[in-house]
Design brief:
The structure is a single chain. The chain is mostly helical. The protein is 80% helix and 0% strand. Helix 3 crosses helix 5.
Length: 301
Amino acid sequence: MSNQLLATFLVFLASCSLTFAVLSWVRDRRLRRSLVRGLQTGQASTVSVGIGTSAFGMSREPMLARFGRIAARFLPKDEKLRLKLIRAGWESRTAALTFAGVRFWLIISCTALATTTGYVLNRPGQQVLLWAGLGFLVGWMLPEFVVQRRTRLRKKRIRKSLPDALDLLVVCVEAGVGLDGAILRVSDELSNTHTDIAHEFRMINHRVNAGMPRPEALRELVQRTMVDDIRSIITTLIQSEKLGVSIGRVLRVEAAALRTKRRQEAEQNARKAPIKMLVPLILFVLPALMTVILGPAGIHL
């Protein structure tokens, strides 16, 4: 009887957790839509971005972020979490709190779901405890896995769009535009096709306009992206600016080197294709082919 009561309580806890997550997602989506609508109509004074209040006094902070403020008291602090989320593309002021809220919600939900499953299947107590520990690990590791995957995909997109951005920078610089103006122009041109690199260039321009020295803003770009190609380009740009070398010539050489590197990577992946095709060929194609060829002969034998 006690096991049934505990299982019922855990099911209720998981249901409440799932309901809270759905309501938080719906409310946060409405909040983003209202923010975009307010910015498009010019009524940004009634809608504050990030943490704030609306014109009716309602808190405009996302529900998961407010839940994350409570959850952050129980979770260990990660000093590098803010930078990790920026590299994954989440730059909101409430991103760290939202991450903490999602992680805490997943820990509770996965642990409750695993424990409930163990009690419903009438497993021994040690096995139920093991399942609860596995649920805890899943809830803890899943948000980190999502952040790492988004970071890896974003780095890949930035790496692919970098040669095009450098070509546009070369054209702008050789046309007589300054480096800051060229960066702003390239960010506007690539805003629809390569959004990640365009956003990073726009952030450089904002920081330079705010008074940050250009070398420091460029070094910050390296920390925000962690792309090796960008690191080498930024180092070359800073050195050329110190030595008085033509920036257009440096950018042209770097763009040519990047395109050569990308072509070599494509050729390398093409050479790997036959080896990667051996596994599905042996596991799926070859058995079916042998069945079709030797099947009738086997029946006759």
